[in-house]
Each structure stands twice: as C-alpha cells, then as structure tokens.
Amino acid sequence: MDKDLTISVIIPTLNNQDLVEKIILKLNKQTLLPKEIVICDSSSGNEVEEVTKKINSDIPISYVEAGRAYPFDRFMIKFKSLFLNKKTLSQQKEGRAYPYEASNLGAHKAQFEWLAFLDTTTIPDDSWLEQYSKIIKDENVEVVFGVTRYLAERNFQQLLRASTYGRIGHETAPGTLIRKKDFINSNEILEGVRSGGDIEWRNRIKSNYKWITPKVISLTYPYLQKNLFSATKKFFWYQLHGARLDVQNTVKDVYLGLLLILSSIVIPQWNGIVGWEESPLYLPYVTRYYLIALVIIFLSTLVINRGFLRGFSNSFLSNITKTLVFIFACIFVFRWNAKVAGWVEESVWYIPHITKIFVGLVLLSSIAYRGLYFPLMNKVKKEYLFPFKWVVVGMLGLFLDAVKAPGYVIGSIISPFTKTRKK
Fold it and tell me: Of 15, 106, 252, 301, which residue is least crowded by CB atoms under 10 Å?
C-alpha cells in the first residue's frame, strides 16, 4: 500500500477568529488528516492567535504573524515610501498582508512535503485530502486544483449565484494540492495585488507542471454577499485590483477595441459638440492629436505586445471582429433614417423610433443572455428561472458587468505598457 502524503494546510486570515475556529474543527474531520495547519494571520488584534492556542485539535497548529492590520495601512505604507528611506520605513508598523502574500509566507513556514491551500471561507468535504492524495497517485500528476461550488440561502444570494457562478464547480486556488518544492521554486502567487493573482498563478502552474482539475466537487463557498451594495463593492474593487495583471486578456481586448472605436467616433466630433471656438472646451487640432495617440496605443497593444511578439489568438480576432460588427451595426442603425430615408417620413424606408427599437432589442437580448442562456449553461434550475425570475437575474448580471467595466477598461489601457507582474 502506498504511503500517505504528508500535507501542510495553509490558511491566510484577517480578523476572522470565528471562521478560523470552524475551519480548524472541520479539518479535524478529514479522513486523511494533514500533518499540520499553518494559520497566517494579519489581524489587527490577537484573537486568532488565542483561538489557535485554546482550540482542541488533533492536528498540530502553527501560528504565523503575517502582519498587523490598521486603517489604510497599505496606502499609508505606500505613501510613506515616497518620503522615507528604507531603513526608516522598515521601522514603521508593518500593516496587513494580502491573502496571496500570507499564503506564500505560510508555504515557506510549512514543514511537510505537500501544501494544501485553503481559506476561512472555503469549506472542504471530509474526504477532500484523501481524494486529492489518491488523484496524485493514480493520475501521476503534480498538481490538483481545487473545485468549489458556491452555495446560496437567501433570496439575493440565489439571484447573485444564478447571474454569476451558477451551480457548477469552479476551479479555484483554495483546495489546491501541490508539492512544496514546486511551489517555492519560482511558482509562488504574485504579491502586491488584492485579486486576480490566483488566476495568473493557475495559468503559470498549468504551463510548467502536470495538473488536473477533478470532476468531483470537494469544496463549497457558503458566504456569497447578502445584498446588492456589498456585491457591487466586491466586484468593483476586485476587478479594479486585477486590472494590472496579465489575466482575462480576452475580455480586456474586447473592452480596448470598444473603447478605441467609440473614441474614434466621438473625439473627431468634439469641437462640433462643444460649440467650436466660442466654447471654453474647444480643443484645436483635436483630431490630429487623437490620431497620433491612437496610432501609438494601437501599435503598442496589437503589434508589440500581442502582435508579432506573441501572435494573434483566434479568440482575440474573433472578439475584435464581433465588437467591430456591433459598433458598425449601431452606426448603421443610428444613421438609417438620415442616409437611407432622407428624414422623409412618408418614405417606405423611414422607420420611426428606429434607435429606440434597436437599443431595446439589444437590451432585451442582453438580459435574455444573462438571465437565461448563461444560468442554464451553469446548471441553474429552470424551475428557479421561470416564469419571470430570469428577468431579474439578467438585469443583475448586466449591472455587475457594468460594475466590473472600469477595471476591464483600465486593464485594457495599461496592459500594453506594463509587463506581467513578477515577484
């Protein structure tokens, strides 16, 4: 019989002593017990450390202080770095560690051959480690990624799940099992970012190691946001933080194409819109300057970064083509009555309210896609969506897409001028 893997479970946390206690007790029910639990704490107080000392656990617990949170700590440290030298700065209060930074620290402190990453909000099944250990041996792979299903109890949580994650399992960094030496060997998660680093990390792991994403779902996430405000806040900030990373480039390419096309329509008409020389907003040679900037951005993005150096992907070309078709369809519809019917209402070609009809159809199609097609593909039950709830789901999905848009736009603009973030 093969010898069991020796596993250290790494758990970053911040001011979540109650959840830390729950996850430790849950890990004690594993059919294959880990050799240790490494708690990497950035809390503002000592509550988490006290939990690790007092809790009754059959698994040894290692407590690691990853930082000490205080209000606006990351901003204050960044601000002070502009004025203080490194020696003085090192004497300042450290502040919190982001989850990826805490996970990396925990990996270095771990004492055993294998690392299993978790967090306080992702709950593993009792057979998680046993199943993953068996996959490592049977499939002869080096990495097994976590697969997490999102749970929902309250009405808003159900709407949020239907419009985003659905009822399927999603590949996640929490739940992942990897050999420590492979993780430490230039494969740590990017630091200095609040979100998106796990996506970049999984992509990097996939290019370097034999990996598998199990079909069996072994983890659940029961802490979806309970109201629209908290969901809006999370999606906005997470996407904004992830804008700097070399991830989700297909979506960023679409937003970049959309931004460039819309700007090429509006900016050359700017002086006419604001009233020419009589307006304080008048910009001389605006078209000339815009075209120069457009050429620079276009060449930097498409030719240097994603052109000859990396090659165009089919998905990139496909998405840009779809964006172009949509934009030109909009222009065609908006100018139909002027160019085709000559604004003659008696003309057979004149279509009253064509713009409103077109916008209404686009909006309805988008709501149908986000409220029907997308949820059904993610195994949301038909009984939940019909007869009318799909409309609410679709509207929520569109709203969250709009909330994430600033992050995508910022990412699409800065991606040509920044290299992939390195440790």
Answer: 15
Q: Is 232 exposed, middle or buried (0-12, 13-18, 19+ CB in 10 A)?
A: middle
Nearest to 122 by CA among 214, 27, 241: 27
- Vertex 364: Cα angle to 360 and 369 (nearest 5): 150
Per-residue pLDDT of the chain (423 residues; tens, 9 = 90+): 357 899 999 999 999 999 999 999 999 999 999 999 999 999 999 999 999 999 999 999 999 999 888 887 777 766 666 665 555 545 445 788 889 999 999 999 999 999 999 999 999 999 999 999 999 999 999 999 999 999 999 999 999 999 999 999 999 999 999 999 999 987 788 877 777 778 889 988 999 999 999 999 999 999 999 999 999 988 888 877 766 555 555 555 555 555 666 666 677 777 777 777 778 777 787 777 766 666 665 555 544 444 444 444 444 455 555 556 666 776 777 778 777 778 877 788 888 888 788 778 878 888 898 999 999 999 999 999 999 999 999 999 988 888 877 766 665 555 544 444 444
> Which pair of tokens denotes residue 138?
């049977």
Q: Which residues contact 287 (CB under 8 A, 6 or more apart)?
A: 267, 268
